[in-house]
Amino acid sequence: MWPMTSAHAEIPQNKQGHPGSTPVEALTAAVNESFDATLASLEDLVAIPGIAWASFDPKELDRSADAVASLVKAAGMEDVRILRCNKPDGTPGGPAVVARRPAAQGKPTILLYAHHDVQPPGDRSLWHSEPFVAEERNGRLYGRGAADDKAGIMAHLAAYSAVTKVLGEDFGLGVTLFFEGEEEAGSPTFRTFLEEHQELLRADVIVVADSSNWKVGVPALTTSLRGLVDGTFEVRVLEHAVHSGMFGGPVLDAPTLLSRLIATLHDDHGNVAVAGLVSRDEVAVDLTEADYRADASVLDGVRLAGSGTIASRLWTKPALSIIGMDVPAVDVASNTLIPAARAKFSMRLAPGQDPEAAMAALKQHVESHAPFGAQVTFTPGESGNAFSTDTTSAAARMALWALGESWGVKPVEMGIGGSIPFIADLLEMYPEVQILVTGVEDPDSRAHSANESLHIGDFRHAVLAETLMLARLNAEGLAE
């Protein structure tokens, strides 16, 4: 990586090894010239608390969509719309900003996706600065949405502006912008939105800018994502609560039996113990235990779970977590035997795993391991497919070249332990499309957590990488 004297330092223009049809130096200069304005627009977006959860003011989400639409128009897009669909219960979904520039004859179309809604701020006492006031410290921009995913929006807009400025009339690539407004709420109307606007969103390549890079200074193309199933299971032992002294002993309370059931979900090494799940140890990327411990903030002395490489445990093996429990809180607990207790699970699935089969396997496990004959009720929740990229596709090769050209180091082809379930909907609606998952985050971005932040230097590189990819796709198309 070239030395950076500050987070705002310009990217050097003496690039080497680029295809002759891509004017790398001119595109680099264009990105550098507008970068301060790009960052200022991102700071303005961070100030808008657009949260798509029912418990938050929907007017702020509308204000966020309006602000994004204005930025899209300023970037030179003329056909800009704010669209939404109703949820299954009839209430309106989040506002999406969609803009379109038709392709010239013989040119492909690329769809650039990001989302403008953000997570709630959570416990404000954990933030070192106001969550909805962008603040720059030590080369990072702090604020809710600074990384996830308003930076994705600004990367798309800045790249589009730079490439159209440099190429002018020579830029004939079709470009569609799709900035969703409810991703952090689970994209409840995403599939309906695709069905209603299938032709408007049709593209040859889709870039989903909602992932991460390997680390600061090292870019990555996300080549696999785990699938997801979630739901709840309840353990019941009594018709109603009874006195723990008068009746305790012959029967165990529901929280105790729920704990025993949860303990069966993993073996002694911490591997998921549910039979029949896809699990592979085929990851070539080296992720050290020390790096994982640092990135995940694992406490000293805590032994890591599972077997196989760290990377495979993150990317190509299942992971099962209990993310919530319904039991009395300590501060309001009484001396009674609790009749029922419930847990919510989240299980990440390896690429190649059918979500329905995984849900059925977990249901069978939970019901067959009911402790002490307790009544167990399993309630399935949401599910989503895993994703893997064909890195030999023309779009993937261009993306990898652009990442390496921008950062000056070889990009990593990495998996992500998380899930983006709507990608399965995109592939189902557009089976021939080439999907690329990129991002502006790094392991210290703390998306969804307090003190979310964006590395400003890497943000500049991300803008340039997308600019270069757009220019090369415009010049060469998708011919293999």
Which descriptor suits the 3D outline? elongated
Please tell me the total number of domains: 2
Q: What is the straight-line distance between the termini?
A: 30 Å
Average pLDDT over all residues: 93
**Helix-strand category:** alpha+beta
Percentage of residues in strands: 15-25%
Report Rg.
24 Å
> Regions with pLDDT < 50 over 5+ consecutive residues?
1-6
Q: Count of DSSP helices? A: 12
CATH class of the largest domain: Alpha Beta
Second CATH tier, the architecture of the largest domain: 3-Layer(aba) Sandwich
Output the strand order for the largest sheet: 1-2-6-3-7-17
State the fourth-level CATH superfamily of the largest domain. Answer: Zn peptidases
Structure description:
- This protein is an alpha+beta fold and 480 residues long.
- The chain has helices at residues 24-46, 58-74, 150-167, 190-196, 244-247, 254-263, 289-296, 310-315, 355-368, 394-407, 422-429, 456-476, and strands at 79-83, 96-101, 109-115, 135-137, 140-142, 174-180, 205-212, 220-225, 227-236, 242-243, 319-326, 336-337, 340-349, 375-384, 387-388, 412-416, 434-441, 453-455.
- It folds into two domains: 24-225 and 386-476, Aminopeptidase, CATH 3.40.630; 228-279 and 318-384, Alpha-Beta Plaits (2-Layer Sandwich), CATH 3.30.70.
- Strand 4 and strand 5 form a beta hairpin.
- The strands form five sheets. It has a six-stranded mixed beta sheet. Strands 11-13-9-14 form a four-stranded antiparallel beta sheet.
- Helix 1 packs across helix 12 (456-476), helix 3 (150-167) crosses helix 12 (456-476) and helix 4 (190-196) packs parallel to helix 11 (422-429).
